[in-house]
């Protein structure tokens, strides 16, 4: 449901000379939601985020928060805060002073800003390292400090540009759960830019898929994954096959909905990949379309197939999903 507290993009466009980085996008972000802006490199995600933050001017259109246009306000007066990929901590300041920095700029006295900084450091589980310098912290710890520093301004919307990309896979999964917890506890909107589909599916209440400077599809993670509108979204989200059926229409079918059957679409196995709980059987249809069937491990080994073998593929009609052309 739409409320006056929404963050709204209205005909938002960004041009760099002849390059259109963001083209006439319209979107309402529900308050208190975790949103992932997802898309391939160069699709305009970071530019969109930077325009919301106020680090990039708007060429055309408006950014509304609470119904008022914030698109020409300086970053600190927008009600948004941004956490950068590089963390951008001041190397000569302690963790506490890094977090308190923006309050110092506002002229808030030392005792008060330190108390607030300590409160936020506790929130991100860094209270015990408040005296350290950034160079004495691990990457994951620096990131927590950067988060606390962004949150000290009590933003309505926290903007995160690829916040997990510098972390190793183990830490990435841990931090992703932390981000989700923080968003829930704080009850504010997080807009998180990523090019990781898994990350977006795991985190987002709403996934906004961008491609070529426009929003290709937006919806809940389940909706975008299960009902991709376009071939681009189906392929980009992964886990889908795209096939042409008689009549010429294009359909997406999830790989885990495709079965090896006694009759159906004739295909030839091109490769077999064991994935532990299941086996990915890649096949080629007569029209050369590649179709992957994800078969439960036990089922596959009851009747194993090898590359070069002829098979039949089947799926329930209800699982095929028509794509916009
Ligand atoms: N300062 C700039 N000057 C000129 N062109 C730019 C500038 N910043 C971005 N662009 C162009 O705008 C388009 C969108 O860039 P943007 O950084 O928003 O993409 P992105 O989706 O965030 O990509 P990535 O995932 O690689 O960061 C690209 O074609 C890029 O080359």
From TrEMBL:
SMART domains: AAA. GO terms for biological process: quaternary ammonium group transport. Keywords: ATP-binding, Nucleotide-binding, Transport. One of its GO terms (cellular component) is ATP-binding cassette (ABC) transporter complex. One of its GO terms (molecular function) is ATP binding. It comes from the Bacteria. PROSITE patterns: ABC_TRANSPORTER_1, ABC_TRANSPORTER_2. Residues 7-237 form the ABC transporter domain. PANTHER family: SPERMIDINE/PUTRESCINE IMPORT ATP-BINDING PROTEIN POTA, SPERMIDINE_PUTRESCINE IMPORT ATP-BINDING PROTEIN POTA. This is Fe3+/spermidine/putrescine ABC transporter ATP-binding protein. It comes from Pseudooceanicola lipolyticus. The lineage of its organism: Bacteria, Pseudomonadati, Pseudomonadota, Alphaproteobacteria, Rhodobacterales.
């Amino acid at each position: 449901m739409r409320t006056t507290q929404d963050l709204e993009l209205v005909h938002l466009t960004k041009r760099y000379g002849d390059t259109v980085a963001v083209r006439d996008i319209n979107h309402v972000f529900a308050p208190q939601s975790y949103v992932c802006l997802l898309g391939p490199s160069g699709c305009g995600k970071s530019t969109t985020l930077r325009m919301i933050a106020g680090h990039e001017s708007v060429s055309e259109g408006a950014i509304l928060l609470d119904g008022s246009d914030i698109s020409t306000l300086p970053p600190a007066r927008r009600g948004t805060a941004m956490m950068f990929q590089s963390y951008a901590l001041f190397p000569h300041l302690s963790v506490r002073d890094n977090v308190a920095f923006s309050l110092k700029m506002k002229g808030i006295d030392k005792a008060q800003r330190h108390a607030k900084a300590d409160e936020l450091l506790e929130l991100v589980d860094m209270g015990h390292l408040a005296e350290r310098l950034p160079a004495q912290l691990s990457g994951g710890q620096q990131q927590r400090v950067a988060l606390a520093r962004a949150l000290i301004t009590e933003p309505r919307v926290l903007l995160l540009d690829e916040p997990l990309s510098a972390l190793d896979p183990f830490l990435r999964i841990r931090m992703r759960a932390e981000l989700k917890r923080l968003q829930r506890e704080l009850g504010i909107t997080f807009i998180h830019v990523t090019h990781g589909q898994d990350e977006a599916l795991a985190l987002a209440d709403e996934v906004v898929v961008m491609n070529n400077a426009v929003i290709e599809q937006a919806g809940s993670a389940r909706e975008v994954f299960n009902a991709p509108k376009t071939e681009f979204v189906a392929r980009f989200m992964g886990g889908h096959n795209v096939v042409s059926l008689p009549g010429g229409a294009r359909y997406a079918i999830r790989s885990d909905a495709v079965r090896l059957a006694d009759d159906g679409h004739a295909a030839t196995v091109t490769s077999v990949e064991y994935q532990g709980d299941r086996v990915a059987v890649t096949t080629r249809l007569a029209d050369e379309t590649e179709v992957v069937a994800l078969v439960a491990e036990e089922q596959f080994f009851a009747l194993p197939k090898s590359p070069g073998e002829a098979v039949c593929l089947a799926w329930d009609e209800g699982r095929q999903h028509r794509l916009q052309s």
